[in-house]
Structures are given as structure tokens and as C-alpha cells.
Amino acid sequence: MTVQSVNVQYFIETDNTKQKQTLSIRGTAEKANVWDDLEIKLVPDGILGIPLHHGFQRDALSIYNDAIPHLRKDFPLRITGHSLGGAVAMILAAYFENQGYTVERLVTFGQPKFAAEQPSETILSVTTRVVNDLDVVPMVPPHTVARQYQHFAIEVILREGQDYVFLNEHDADRLSIGDFWRNITHFSTKDHHIDSYLANIQGKIENGSRQVPYLFKDNSKSSAVAALN
């Protein structure tokens, strides 16, 4: 379905045999969606009782009201989203939990920040945020005195080849604040695209993966080139 009022698309997959359902929210697809990312004013949310990013809250409420008739309360719910859809997915997970749904799993890709206070400890316990190493979108909106946006839940950073980084919630939020201005100059639009995420994950499935520290960088290729020169 596409919610015309906010121009955001979502998908629901229901498996009646396994009694599971999955809600997926598409990321920024057209230029119009970009303005949702820029509406960074924090506004009170009547469902969760905390301030939320204005644009993401509006999209989440629109999808929430549109999707309710198509979801089963007796089936566990899995939710996922990319980019704008990732922020909306996390808000939706908290909405549905608040209304008595069992949110079994939440995975977001390239998700920007959406709040200054955590929405739900239960939701965060089943959440993984996946980010590509050069994708700067997860670092916005930047943390300022006026708008103290934070990240919540654990984060998995996908690097080239086999490497990935695992960060707990505290480290993920700390690094997203401190690294924004350093990494903004290295921002890659390609690294934010969902195809890049899928290719990176598929490569690790096929070729193996290894967990490395955040500050670790594999310089073997550059060293080999330098030796040849």
C-alpha cells in the first residue's frame, strides 16, 4: 500500500501457516520524501508520551492507521525498514507494542535518528540497526543543544569484505554524535542505497564474516600497493 497523504509505501506479508506477519516500510523513494527527513522539530507524541521527529511521526501515524485493519493481533509481528522507513519502523514498533501487539523482531537499515528519549525498553531488546560504514544518514539529525537526538539499540556496521563492527547501544549513540562532522565529507550516496546493503550482506553470507573493533581498518590492500610502488 502507498499512503497517499505522506507518499510512503509499506508492505505486509502474512504467513498463516507459521502464524507470523512482517511489516516493511520503504525508504526515501522520491524527492518529496526527503522533506520528511528535514522536518526535525521534536513534537509531543500522544501514544508514546515522548517527543518525536515531526516528519517521521506524521508518516508513522499515517501508516499505523492504514495498516491496523490488515494486521492480526494474535500473530507475532516483525518490522523492518530502510532509511526514512527505518525511523518510521521503530516508531511503529513502539506504537504496536503499546496497543498489545507482540513485536518479535525489528531490523532497520540506514536508519536516521527520530527521538531524544527511548520509546520502549522491550522494543529495543529485539532491535538491530544495520548501517553501511560510509552511510552518513544514520548520523542525522546531528546532536545539538537545541535538539538532542539520540540512537537506541545495538548497531551493526557493515564494512567492505568480511568485516563488520558490533556496537552496544551506548557506544553506537556516542559514536554517532562524535563522528558526524568528521564523516560528513566522506558521505557516499551509493552506500545509503538499499541495494548496497543487500550486496554487502550477501557478500558476507557467501564469503564469511568477521567481527572487528570499531577503530580497526584493514590496510593490507593499501600496504601491498605501496610496496609495489
Fold and architecture overview:
The strands form 2 sheets. A 9-stranded mixed sheet has the order 1-2-3-6-7-8-9-10-11. The chain has a single domain, classed as 3-Layer(aba) Sandwich (Rossmann fold). A hairpin with a 6-residue loop joins β4 and β5. It is built from 9 helices and 11 strands. By secondary structure, it is of the alpha/beta class. The C terminus is likely disordered. Helices cover 36% and strands 23% of the residues. α1 crosses α2 and α2 packs across α3. It is globular, with a radius of gyration of 18 Å.
Radius of gyration: 18 Å
Low-confidence stretches: 29-36, 220-229
Q: Helix proportion of residues, in percent?
A: 25-40%
Spatial arrangement of strands, main beta sheet: 1-2-3-6-7-8-9-10-11
State mean pLDDT (0 to 100 scale).
Answer: 82
Q: What is the helix/strand order? A: EEEHEEHEHEHEEEHHHHEH
Class based on secondary structure composition and strand pairing: alpha/beta
Q: Mind telling me the CATH class?
A: Alpha Beta
Query: How many individual domains?
Result: 1
Q: Considering the protein shown, what is the CATH homologous superfamily?
A: Alpha/Beta hydrolase fold, catalytic domain
